[in-house]
Amino acid sequence: MAGDPPIRVLRVIARLNIGGPAIQAISMTRLLDERGYETTLVRGSEEPDEGSMDGLAEKLDVRPLYVPSLRRNPGWHDVRALAALVGIVARERPRIVHTHAAKAGTLGRVAAILAPGRSERVLVHTFHGHSLSGYFSSPTARVYLTIERFLARRTDRLIAVSEEVRDDLVALGVAPAERFEVIRLGFDLAPFTVGEPERSRRGAAVRAELGIPEDARLVTLIARLVPIKRVDRFLRVARRLADREDVRFLIVGDGELRDEVRAGEDARALGERVTWAGFRGDMPDVCFASDVVVLTSDNEGTPVSLIEALAAATPVVSTNVGGVASVVRDGQTGLLADRDDDEGLADAIERLLDDAQTAEQLAAEGQRHALRTFDQQRLVDDLDGLYRRLLAEDRAAASKPASRRRQAAVQRAQR
Q1: What is the helix (H) or strand (E) element at residue 285, kind and residue range?
Q2: What is d(CA 53, CA 51) in angstroms, rounded to the nearest whole number?
Q3: Which of 217, 352, 359, 369 has the largest CB neighbor count within 10 A?
Q4: Could you tell me the pTM of the whole model?
Q5: Which residues does residue 70 pair with via DSSP β-bridges, in sequence order?
Q6: Among 227, 21, 333, which Cα is nearest to 320's?
Q7: Collapsing DSSP states into helix, strand and coil, what is residue 355?
Q8: Which CATH number is 190-373's, of 3.40.50.280, 3.40.50.2000, 3.10.180.10, 1.10.10.10?
Q9: Crossing angle (nearest 10°) for helices 356-373 and 304-311
Q10: pLDDT tens digits for range 358-368
């Protein structure tokens, strides 16, 4: 209501590397202001090869609090990061603490629990995906799963970015389904909705800059060069299409596997047919330059590269993993293949290259789906509604006698 003091939110993310979690953390820090919130964004350090979303933060005039010891990989620096976060929570006295992704979700929630005044704040965590299967050895995964289960019982609300992510977490025993709220990501997709002739002009400029022939059919992977994204699979699929002289391949992104995958047999065999572009800030133009955007991951939360490609009306092909199905409806907004089906992925790409009518129909429906489902204003509405509902529940609980408050707290912890 007008005249009420703003609701203080502390938003914590381990790093503002290129990707959906950082985009959401930055944009919601600014866009919730108009709904009566005052948000402090806490961020840690990116690795040198992860890229950074600092440009978006500057554009939106978001100035995060920097905790240098808050980093992706575990180590003794986590102790310093936890101490820093406890101090920030105690100083800022937020009504809502909202953590994003695994590392910030662990340290940020522990800090919110340990800092004085726990009963005065609501604790929310967003799973943008999860690393509880397919990333670590079994013993390590079991430790992380135990931590997630412990923290889930002490979190007022868990958010999953898709039904698929929620269902995975429920199956793993992190928490029962009723503890989760599915809130899809939301983005400013207006830069991707450009008409002709500007679209063609900008796409052609990217091709000219990268030395890709104007008349080539361009198949693009947009991904961090990390194990879960399976750039090696993309290169194998590309080799299956290499007998087509008109096809070129573009890899946009960087990461820890850059040198390894570029030195591999498949990359060497493709030679100059594949272009390595690194991180780029002109993703709409990359989509305009591409005939097909492909994702070959082993797992995904909500794939931002596919959302952006669909918004740009560029046909897409992907492995059917994680939350991909919430973005790409097979045969309706794009084409999907099983994770280990290299032949199926190659056939799907070739179909879109050869069948212009199908490619145009999928791209048009994909654009409508992306703009309708992943709208940024819808995300603001969803988070505002959730926050206010949680605060109302918290006020109702606080009005109960002390014995009933303790009983309610025990019941929340047991859920």
Answers
A1: helix 283-289
A2: 7
A3: 352
A4: 0.89
A5: none
A6: 333
A7: coil
A8: 3.40.50.2000
A9: 110
A10: 999 999 999 99
